[in-house]
Amino acid sequence: MVLDDRARPVVLAAPSGAGKTTIARRLVEGPGPFVFSVSATTRAPRPGERDGVDYVFTDEDGFKEMVRVGELAEWARVHGRLYGTPIRNLDDAAAGGRYPLLDIDVQGARQIRDRVPNALLLFVLPPSVDVWMERLHGRGTEGPGERARRLRSAARELDDVTAFDVVVVNDDLDDAVARVRDVVLHGHPGLGAEETEERVAALKRGVARALEEMETAVPEGSGGD
Ligand code: ADP
Ligand code: 5GP
User: Fold this and answer.
1) Is residue 123 part of a domain?
2) Within a domain: residue 157?
3) Contacts of the segment 215-224: beta carbons below 8 A, 24+ positions apart
4) Could you list the residue range(s) of the whole structural domain that residue 105 is in?
5) 132 alpha carbon to ligand 1 midpoint, in Å?
6) Is the CB of 154 under 6 A from ligand 1?
7) Ligand 1 contacts CB of residue 39 (under 6 A)
8) Would you place residue 56 in the very low, low, confident or very high pLDDT band (cuts 50, 70, 90)?
9) With CB atoms 3.0 to 4.6 Å apart as the test, which of 7, 11, 98, 146 could cross-link to 33 if both were Cys?
10) Does residue 165 sit in helix, strand or coil?
11) 3-class DSSP state for residue 168?
C-alpha cells in the first residue's frame, strides 16, 4: 500500500443518516483532488445504485475471497452485512495524486488509522436529532426495523467520536462540503472539543428517546422489515 502524502486517505464516518455519503459524493463531483473509494459489500443494491459505482456488490463467498487474498485495506460487518475498502482504491488515488474519500463505518476507520498512519479521520454529526430522524425517514431506504437497528448502532458510533481527528456538523449541505474541503486542503480544525461533547450528549439523549418510541412498535431482535 502506498503511504506517501498524496495518498492521504480521508475517512468520512458518521452515524447512519448523518449525511456522509451525500457529502462525499458532492466533494468528488466538485472541483478538487478527491476521488470516491468504492467499497465492496454483501448488501443488496438499493434502487438506482450501480455496481462498481456506488459499491462493488458481491456475495459472502466473494467477499471472503477478497479478504483471504488480502485485497482489502479494512473490512467490517456493519448492520449485519460485510463492507470493505479495496487497497487498490488507495493506490489508484495515490497514483493520480488525489485524496481517496472513504465513506466507511467507525470500525473501518479504526483499522485505517492503524494501517495508514497519515489518514485523516473526519466524523460527521447531524445538526440535531429531529433533523437526523427526518433525513433517515426521508431517505426512505430502510423500513422501521432496519431504522431501529441503525439507530442502535448510531448510539454506539457516537461514542467513538473522540477517536477522530476532526468533527464537522452537516447542517446546510453546501456549508458542510465547504468545511470538509477546508479541513482537508487547508488544515481547518473543525468543531471544538467542548461543542463536540455537548452536541454528542444531546444527540445521544435524542437517540435514546427515539428508540424508546420505536421499540414499543418494534421490539429489539424482531428484524422488523
Ligand atoms: P449517511 O451516508 O451518513 O448514512 P446520507 O448521505 O445517505 O447519510 O444522507 C441521509 C439523507 O439525508 C439522504 O436522503 C440525503 O439526501 C439527506 N441529506 C444529507 N445531507 C443533507 C443536508 N445537509 N441537508 C439536507 N438533507 C441532507
Ligand atoms: P449503507 O448500507 O447505508 O450504504 O452503509 C452502511 C454503513 O456501512 C455506513 O456506515 C457506511 O459508511 C459503511 N460502509 C460502507 N462502505 C464501507 C467499507 O468499505 N468499510 C466499512 N468498514 N464500512 C463501510
Assistant:
1) yes
2) yes
3) 215/148, 217/144, 218/144, 218/145, 218/148, 220/148, 220/152, 222/145, 223/145, 224/143, 224/144, 224/145, 224/146, 224/148, 224/149
4) 10-36+99-217
5) 8
6) no
7) no
8) very high
9) 98
10) coil
11) strand
Say if ligand 1 is within 6 A of residue 18 CB: yes
| pLDDT attached to residue 20 | 93
Per-residue pLDDT reduced to its tens digit, 5-45: 556 899 999 988 899 999 999 999 988 899 999 999 999 99
Residue 15 lies in a domain: yes
- Residue 151's CATH number: 3.40.50.300
Average pLDDT of the segment spanning 131-149: 82
Nearest CA to ligand 1 atom 5: 19
Number of structural domains (the chain) is 1
Please state the rounded mean pLDDT for residues 177-205: 94
C-alpha cell at 79: 448492520
Which atom of ligand 2 is nearest to 150's Cα? 6
Residue 138 domain-assigned? yes
Atom of ligand 2 nearest to the CA of 141: 3
d(CA 195, CA 215): 30
CA gap 33, 49 in Å, rounded: 24
Residue 153, ligand 1, Cβ within 6 A: no
Among 105, 132, 135, residue to substitute to test ligand 1 (most atoms within 8 Å of Cβ): 135
